[in-house]
């Protein structure tokens, strides 16, 4: 299979690659191209910008969360119906899991045999920029550095100094540049950018981004470089086809989706659908009850801390959730979902808001980071997702902590941080809630186990609670 594709990478975080990648997607879409966006790594917010810019759901590509065959399958499945794939990198080009580099932009570029455009922040740089680009080009010969995009250039004289140094010393062409301040700022808060769903004026900002990128980049050259990627390598999995072949009866599952809960990997949800799930949207902010036919519930991450007053005020849904869980309804929650299931959550101003009370613990926000990074986790005991000792791969990023846990509180997972055992979440045969974000395409047995519990509940075969 041949697919035009290109990676927008950065020398480090903060160089402007999200703005440039999203602007490029919007600019090419405005020219009538079917643009498929992708994001390297465990990010939920940047893909929401891609989706708005292209009109197509953006997908995550991560070789730590998913095996390479699954990443290839996910890429092919989405890219095959598009004209061009734009893949936004994560952090710096070579930043990934500290032990093996998995999950890095470079790992994805190698896997997809995709050319890379490197975004360089030109602030205070002169001819030394050539050494920087040369280092990124030379570190891994398996990464095809096809061009450089210069951001935050002072003026045209500065541009010519940088361009000449890069092209003469490295042989890598400069395919575009943006003057300092040319890109409109994107609003952010403690976890990064504010999700697209919370910003009514974002389409106008994306139009500005598209115009700036179209003016600063040689779009024809970028498309030509993407067209030079050649055939995709063999080795894509057939996990979706296998799931559909074994799906069986359709099972309705409620999925919390609104401004407070929006953190989901599209391919993770699609894999559940392939297994037979019918995903029913539910809003903890607005709905008064769960969908009555739901045989399971998923509450993903998001920003419940921004909406605590509204979430606490929706007592009918909180009470219905407690009733359904008491009946044995299977429930899986991640990060923000974990916060929502606690007895209460205390915000940064010290206000405490009563919440679902499904989990015998409270939650507290703090100003310093509480957890960040990839995790190779193991189930502490048999629970909704599997058997004791089962290994799962995930990622955490949060500013809140659990407090006031009850005696005998059963953690869901354990992992080691710098050799020290760490325990996370709450896990029983009916409920798993933790700070760990999973990608079900990389944790397929856990997805199957969750839906098996939902089918058991729908069939009325006893109570699945521990």
Strand content: 25-35%
For the largest beta-sheet, the strand count, sense and barrel status come to: 7 strands, parallel
Between the first and last Cα atoms, what is the distance in angstroms?
48 Å
What count of helical segments does DSSP give?
14
Q: Summed up, what is this model?
A:
By secondary structure, the protein is α/β, with parallel strands linked by helices. It has helices at residues 17-30, 46-54, 68-79, 105-112, 129-139, 156-170, 202-216, 219-227, 239-245, 266-274, 308-313, 315-326, 336-341, 444-458; strands spanning 5-10, 35-40, 59-61, 84-88, 116-121, 145-153, 174-179, 188-189, 192-193, 251-256, 261-263, 277-282, 297-299, 301-302, 331-334, 344-346, 352-354, 362-365, 371-379, 391-398, 400-403, 413-417, 420-424, 426-427, 431-434, 437-438.
What order do the helices and strands come in, and which of them pair?
Layout: E1 5-10, H1 17-30, E2 35-40, H2 46-54, E3 59-61, H3 68-79, E4 84-88, H4 105-112, E5 116-121, H5 129-139, E6 145-153, H6 156-170, E7 174-179, E8 188-189, E9 192-193, H7 202-216, H8 219-227, H9 239-245, E10 251-256, E11 261-263, H10 266-274, E12 277-282, E13 297-299, E14 301-302, H11 308-313, H12 315-326, E15 331-334, H13 336-341, E16 344-346, E17 352-354, E18 362-365, E19 371-379, E20 391-398, E21 400-403, E22 413-417, E23 420-424, E24 426-427, E25 431-434, E26 437-438, H14 444-458
Parallel strand pairs: 1-4, 1-5, 2-3, 2-4, 5-6, 6-7, 10-12, 10-13, 13-15, 15-25, 16-18
Antiparallel strand pairs: 8-9, 11-14, 16-17, 18-21, 19-20, 19-22, 20-26, 22-23, 24-25
Helix pairs in contact: 1-2, 1-7, 5-6, 9-10
